Amino acid sequence: MTELLNKAFDELTTVELFEIYRARTDVFVVEQNCAYPEVDADDLVAKHLWFAGEDGHVRAYCRLYPAAQAGHWHIGRVLVNERDRKQGLARKLLQAALNWLQQQSEIDVIDIAAQTYLTRFYASFGFQAIGEPFDDFGVMHQNMTLTFVK
């Protein structure tokens, strides 16, 4: 069984925070061979959304946090644990994130810096590419945006 969890930073238990940081490091630092500051201040203001397995491990994860521009929020650190891929968790996770964001009255636009190989995936949810792809610590990304119609 997999449970969907959605918590602010100060609601996370130490074990949940450990599992989140372990999953993010495993995917973004180790698997993608990318040395960068994985833990940052955005964690403190983010809503952390993830699917947890029965053993507590993070199967899929993302964080949602306010962007600099009013009415904009950012989806970041989207991942599916390597052993949990090919089960539709990324689609379920992103849909859950968008559902939560759309319920917030102050949020009109969602921004994401997508790894370029995932732009078609995000486009399937209505995200549109903005600008040119860019290198972020050795991994190519594409800024994308989605505007909610309310």
From TrEMBL:
N-acetyltransferase domain mapped to chain residues: 7-145
InterPro entries documented for this protein: Acyl_CoA_acyltransferase (IPR016181), Bact_Acetyltransf (IPR050832), GNAT_dom (IPR000182)
Domain of life, source organism: Bacteria
Sample GO molecular function, one term: acyltransferase activity, transferring groups other than amino-acyl groups
Pfam families: Acetyltransf_10
UniProt keywords, alphabetically: Acyltransferase, Transferase
Record field: transmembrane: none
Gene3D superfamilies reported for this sequence: 3.40.630.30
PANTHER family recorded: ACETYLTRANSFERASE, AMINOALKYLPHOSPHONATE N-ACETYLTRANSFERASE-RELATED-RELATED
Name recorded for this polypeptide: GNAT family acetyltransferase
Organism of origin: Furfurilactobacillus siliginis
Gene name linked to the record: ykbA
